[in-house]
User: Fold this.
Amino acid sequence: MAQCPCNCGRRVPFNRGGAATGYKRVTGMLDQFGDIADGIRGDGGDPSEFLATRGEGERIAQQILDHLHKVAKPTTHPSLLDLVNDMRRWETRWQAALLRAVGEI
Assistant:
Protein backbone atom coordinates (compact mmCIF):
# COMPACT_ATOMS: atom_id res chain seq x y z
CA MET A 1 0.00 0.00 0.00
CA ALA A 2 1.12 3.51 -0.77
CA GLN A 3 -0.02 6.95 0.35
CA CYS A 4 -2.79 8.59 -1.71
CA PRO A 5 -1.31 11.36 -3.89
CA CYS A 6 -3.94 13.88 -2.76
CA ASN A 7 -2.49 13.69 0.79
CA CYS A 8 -5.83 12.68 2.29
CA GLY A 9 -4.10 10.03 4.40
CA ARG A 10 -5.74 7.09 2.67
CA ARG A 11 -3.72 4.10 1.61
CA VAL A 12 -3.79 3.18 -2.08
CA PRO A 13 -3.06 -0.36 -3.29
CA PHE A 14 0.09 -0.69 -5.38
CA ASN A 15 -1.97 -1.96 -8.32
CA ARG A 16 -3.38 1.59 -8.54
CA GLY A 17 0.09 3.10 -8.89
CA GLY A 18 -0.52 4.07 -12.52
CA ALA A 19 -3.61 6.03 -11.54
CA ALA A 20 -1.70 7.74 -8.74
CA THR A 21 1.05 8.72 -11.19
CA GLY A 22 -1.54 10.04 -13.65
CA TYR A 23 -3.15 12.11 -10.90
CA LYS A 24 0.22 13.60 -9.95
CA ARG A 25 1.00 14.36 -13.57
CA VAL A 26 -2.29 16.17 -14.22
CA THR A 27 -2.25 18.11 -10.95
CA GLY A 28 1.38 19.06 -11.54
CA MET A 29 0.39 20.61 -14.85
CA LEU A 30 -2.64 22.28 -13.28
CA ASP A 31 -0.42 23.80 -10.58
CA GLN A 32 1.54 25.60 -13.30
CA PHE A 33 -1.49 27.28 -14.89
CA GLY A 34 -1.48 30.50 -12.87
CA ASP A 35 2.21 31.22 -13.27
CA ILE A 36 2.20 30.42 -16.98
CA ALA A 37 -0.91 32.53 -17.63
CA ASP A 38 0.60 35.45 -15.71
CA GLY A 39 3.78 35.14 -17.76
CA ILE A 40 1.82 35.12 -21.02
CA ARG A 41 -0.15 38.19 -19.93
CA GLY A 42 3.01 39.93 -18.77
CA ASP A 43 4.53 39.45 -22.21
CA GLY A 44 1.45 40.87 -23.92
CA GLY A 45 -0.16 37.59 -24.98
CA ASP A 46 -3.68 36.27 -24.53
CA PRO A 47 -3.85 33.15 -22.31
CA SER A 48 -7.62 32.60 -22.76
CA GLU A 49 -7.37 29.47 -24.94
CA PHE A 50 -4.70 28.04 -22.65
CA LEU A 51 -6.84 28.73 -19.56
CA ALA A 52 -9.86 27.11 -21.23
CA THR A 53 -8.12 23.73 -21.05
CA ARG A 54 -7.94 23.93 -17.25
CA GLY A 55 -11.49 22.69 -16.59
CA GLU A 56 -10.96 19.50 -18.55
CA GLY A 57 -7.75 18.79 -16.64
CA GLU A 58 -9.53 19.32 -13.32
CA ARG A 59 -12.29 16.91 -14.40
CA ILE A 60 -9.77 14.24 -15.36
CA ALA A 61 -7.85 14.65 -12.08
CA GLN A 62 -11.06 14.38 -10.04
CA GLN A 63 -12.20 11.26 -11.85
CA ILE A 64 -8.81 9.60 -11.38
CA LEU A 65 -8.99 10.51 -7.69
CA ASP A 66 -12.48 8.97 -7.50
CA HIS A 67 -10.98 5.71 -8.79
CA LEU A 68 -8.19 5.90 -6.22
CA HIS A 69 -10.70 6.52 -3.42
CA LYS A 70 -12.87 3.69 -4.78
CA VAL A 71 -15.97 5.86 -5.17
CA ALA A 72 -16.03 5.67 -8.96
CA LYS A 73 -19.04 3.87 -10.38
CA PRO A 74 -19.08 2.27 -13.85
CA THR A 75 -22.33 4.09 -14.67
CA THR A 76 -20.99 7.58 -13.91
CA HIS A 77 -17.21 7.37 -14.36
CA PRO A 78 -15.06 6.39 -17.33
CA SER A 79 -12.67 3.49 -16.86
CA LEU A 80 -9.06 4.17 -15.90
CA LEU A 81 -8.01 3.22 -19.42
CA ASP A 82 -10.38 5.82 -20.87
CA LEU A 83 -9.09 8.37 -18.37
CA VAL A 84 -5.50 7.68 -19.40
CA ASN A 85 -6.49 8.28 -23.02
CA ASP A 86 -8.37 11.46 -22.00
CA MET A 87 -5.30 12.60 -20.06
CA ARG A 88 -3.01 12.11 -23.05
CA ARG A 89 -5.36 14.02 -25.37
CA TRP A 90 -5.68 16.79 -22.77
CA GLU A 91 -1.91 17.06 -22.39
CA THR A 92 -1.58 17.45 -26.16
CA ARG A 93 -4.24 20.20 -26.23
CA TRP A 94 -2.63 21.87 -23.19
CA GLN A 95 0.76 21.96 -24.87
CA ALA A 96 -0.67 23.14 -28.21
CA ALA A 97 -2.63 25.95 -26.54
CA LEU A 98 0.48 26.96 -24.59
CA LEU A 99 2.60 27.03 -27.75
CA ARG A 100 -0.01 29.12 -29.59
CA ALA A 101 -0.22 31.56 -26.66
CA VAL A 102 3.56 31.87 -26.47
CA GLY A 103 3.77 32.18 -30.26
CA GLU A 104 1.49 35.25 -30.16
CA ILE A 105 3.97 37.13 -27.99
Summary: The chain has a mean pLDDT of 85. Helices lie at 17-31, 33-42, 48-52, 54-68, 80-103. The first strand starts at residue 2 and ends at 3. The CA atoms of residues 30 and 54 lie 7 Å apart.
